[in-house]
């Protein structure tokens, strides 16, 4: 819950004003204990500073504040100590436009309009009986009204989100605003300086030479395949237990996805089955005409595939390996970061991903200079030495500068979010290990926990129970790709990839994000 504090509330708390001062402090402490985020509207700061300074002067003169400091120094010190405990919400130019022409108090109007721009449940707390909001849907209460509201809603807890981007935004709102405003100011909307900065930071995070941002995780898969010249007659080995994009890009280029079943514990491509599939390609009359070219392992749900074994198979047969790290950026394999585990890697900044933007975005990571140069060209219509020199066919595959600014803001908290995800996963596994099959993370891996997915023969019953308790769940993935219409021409049938098929019948995912607290998790787990 977000509580926007009006000037008079802060003055009451700081200066111990009024007979009901203790009740207000108790309410403030109660809200804080319940995890509320307190906000203050930047537009009201001059009023707060002015009135606070006047009142402090008066209280010192009348002997009710005893200090050796000057009134100005005392006032400054008190505000400096308090303000870091509140988040600041900015007033935008559009808020000024939204003030009704006959509104009696423009500051009240701006405070309420700024408050209404905070995502999630937001309440304005004021002691001013004449406070007039300009935001029709914003609840405005004095401390008695707020207490009553909390009592009334105690039995109606807020909905549990599957992914909580609003909670994340509250942590980084100032960085996001700064990023957006900087782009609005410099105006380099295409390939602005934020793109270069993001690419440098991504490359350094993953420990690779090149990071090339692009318009989506799907294009991040497509660009390396185009750079390798993949086309008709080529076989690319991949898993059928993934999001469509992984195999879609192969087929879009006219090449053939050759599915390989997964490991039942990690849900990632089985290296032993991969080795067998490469060898049997030429022995099968349906595939003998195909040339083995590459492998796309997927780091499903955030856990890296077994790259040492996959890379060994690939090396033996002269195949490239493209790591689909769309779900796993931030995870590690044998101490190395995902994105650095194969010849080239694709990551996605789809909003729900561990590192997401506020739209579509992605990046390709590699140590290979030549491949990087070709992919940079492909990203911009096969560009050569200048804009109108087109040396190959490519894409309009650039990432927007604005989206890069968002990812940069999120990178600032990404490390702590990955750590928080470990704790959320640990709590789930501890609570649910006797109820369902909880995720297995190989000892040489850490997961980025894009999803927390469990297996059960009672999936339907459990999903229904959770739904009844207000807990959202999702199934990734209900039908493996070899049984999807898009690949029907390949002639696969049920039973071809039994491990993937069994997983798709028993798997479901629980709410997972770094801001999931233990109380909410207890509620989720007790609904099983
Ligand atoms: C495994 C996998 N690969 C590729 C993609 C495609 O990423 P995007 O949605 O950014 O195009 C996704 C997105 O969900 C994914 O989960």
Can you walk through the features of this model?
- The chain has 528 residues and is an alpha/beta fold.
- The chain has three domains: 2-158, Rossmann fold (3-Layer(aba) Sandwich), CATH 3.40.50.1010; 211-379, Type I PLP-dependent aspartate aminotransferase-like (Major domain) (Aspartate Aminotransferase, domain 2, 3-Layer(aba) Sandwich), CATH 3.40.640; 414-526, Aspartate Aminotransferase, domain 1 (Alpha-Beta Complex).
- The chain has 18 helices and 17 strands.
- The chain has helices at 7-15, 21-33, 45-61, 71-82, 93-97, 106-115, 143-153, 165-186, 193-206, 217-227, 245-252, 271-281, 307-317, 369-379, 401-432, 459-468, 498-506, 518-526, and strands at residues 2-5, 37-41, 87-89, 122-125, 140-141, 210-214, 234-238, 256-259, 291-296, 320-324, 332-333, 336-337, 344-348, 362-366, 445-446, 452-455, 507-510.
- Helix 1 packs parallel to helix 3 (45-61) and helix 8 packs antiparallel against helix 15.
- It starts with a strand and ends with a helix.
- Pyridoxal-5'-phosphate is lined by residues 216-218, 242-243, 245-246, 298, 324, 326-327, 348, 350, 360, 362.
């Amino acid at each position: 819950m977000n509580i926007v504090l009006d000037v008079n509330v802060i003055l009451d708390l700081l200066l111990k004003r009024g007979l009901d001062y203790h009740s207000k402090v108790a309410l403030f402490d109660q809200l804080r204990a319940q995890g509320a985020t307190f906000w203050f509207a930047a537009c009201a700061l001059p009023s707060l500073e002015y009135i606070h300074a006047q009142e402090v002067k008066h209280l010192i003169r009348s002997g009710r504040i005893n200090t050796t400091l000057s009134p100005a120094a005392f006032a400054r010190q008190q505000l400096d100590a308090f303000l870091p405990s509140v988040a600041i919400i900015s007033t935008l130019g559009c808020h000024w436009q939204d003030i009704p022409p006959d509104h009696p108090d423009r500051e009240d109007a701006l405070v309420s309009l700024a408050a209404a721009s905070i995502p999630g449940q937001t309440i304005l707390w004021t002691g001013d009986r004449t406070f007039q909001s300009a935001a029709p849907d914003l609840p405005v209460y004095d401390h008695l009204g707020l207490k009553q509201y909390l009592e009334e809603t105690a039995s109606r807890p807020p909905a549990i989100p599957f992914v909580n981007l609003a909670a994340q935004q509250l942590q980084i709102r100032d960085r996001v605003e700064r990023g957006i405003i900087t782009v609005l100011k410099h105006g380099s909307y295409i390939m602005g300086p934020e793109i270069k900065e993001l690419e440098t930071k991504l490359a350094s995070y993953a420990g690779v030479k090149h990071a090339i941002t692009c318009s989506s995780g799907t294009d991040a898969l497509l660009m390396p395949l185009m750079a390798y010249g993949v086309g008709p007659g080529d076989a690319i080995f991949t898993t059928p237990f993934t999001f469509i994009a992984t195999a879609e890009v192969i087929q879009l280029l006219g090449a053939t996805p050759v599915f390989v079943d997964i490991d039942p514990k990690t849900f990632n491509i089985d290296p032993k089955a991969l080795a067998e599939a490469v060898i049997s390609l030429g022995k099968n009359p349906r595939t003998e005409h195909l040339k083995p070219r590459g492998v796309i392992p997927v780091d499903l749900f955030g856990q890296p595939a077994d790259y040492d074994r996959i890379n060994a198979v690939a090396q033996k047969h002269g195949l490239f390996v493209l790591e689909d790290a769309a779900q796993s950026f931030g995870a590690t394999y044998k101490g190395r970061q995902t994105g650095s585990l194969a010849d080239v890697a694709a990551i996605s900044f789809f909003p729900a991903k561990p590192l997401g933007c506020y739209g579509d975005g992605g990046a390709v990571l590699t140590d290979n200079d030549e491949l990087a140069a070709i992919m940079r060209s492909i990203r911009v219509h096969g560009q050569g030495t200048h804009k109108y020199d087109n040396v190959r066919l490519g894409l309009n595959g650039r990432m927007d500068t604005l989206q890069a600014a968002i990812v940069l803001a999120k990178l600032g908290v990404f490390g702590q979010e990955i750590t928080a995800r470990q704790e959320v996963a640990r709590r789930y596994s501890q609570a649910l290990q006797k109820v369902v099959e909880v995720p297995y993370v190989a000892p040489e891996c850490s997961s980025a926990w894009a999803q927390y997915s469990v297996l059960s023969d009672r999936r339907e019953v459990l999903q229904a129970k959770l739904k009844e308790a207000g807990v959202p769940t999702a199934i990734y993935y209900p039908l493996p790709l070899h049984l999807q219409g898009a690949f029907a021409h390949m002639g696969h049938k049920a039973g071809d990839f039994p491990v993937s098929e069994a997983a798709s019948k028993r798997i479901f995912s629980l709410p997972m994000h770094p801001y999931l607290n233990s109380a909410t998790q207890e509620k989720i787990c007790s609904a099983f």
